[in-house]
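Backbones bend. Our protein:
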Amino acid sequence: MLALSVEVLDRRCTDVCGIPIDGLGDTRTASSGRAGELALVQRCRDGDVDAKRLLLQRVLPVLHQAVTTLLGPGADADDAVQQAAIDVLRGLGSFRGESNLAAWARTVAVRAGLKSVRHRSRHLSAVDPETLPAPPIADAAFTESIPQSIESYLRQLPPVQREALVLRHGLGCTVPEISELLGVPVNTVKSRLLHGRREVRRCIRRDEAIGAKRPGEAL
């Protein structure tokens, strides 16, 4: 999936920004660390096409991971990754080096992913959670022991609670980060997380009480 995204992203960035990201060769010799990142960003601001290509190669895995955590794999995720990459290039003027480049790019990607989620919800009346991966809200042993998959329980949550849970437990965003990303007060985020977790636990207890089985399991 990542290789496909690189190819598609290459075409999209060439069309929109005039920057093919393939064909740069070995990028391991490029400077790293905070000073190196700031220097690379400055070269991008100065219009250095090779620098922009290198920056995209560095952040693409971060963009892909953040977006697919929100959307799951598929065409919507590919489109959101492409848009996030374009947003990264266009938003470099706002990068001040207060966080590392990967963290800043992840925020850009999450915003692109959330925009896609909300666009989808307007057409489907609710976010289709079938494609949402399970956020690590519990260890593997626990998720294997519960009656249904985490995804199935997420499907039963209101979209705003599901969104908060995926950001917190799937992407590891802090509550203040989620507040900024969603444009809601910190206490609202806390409330959505609290009620979302409570509802997941309630649904698990309900299924345990009635002996519900996962699809495909023998009764």
Notes: The radius of gyration is 20 Å. Residues 56 and 85 are 7 Å apart (CA to CA).
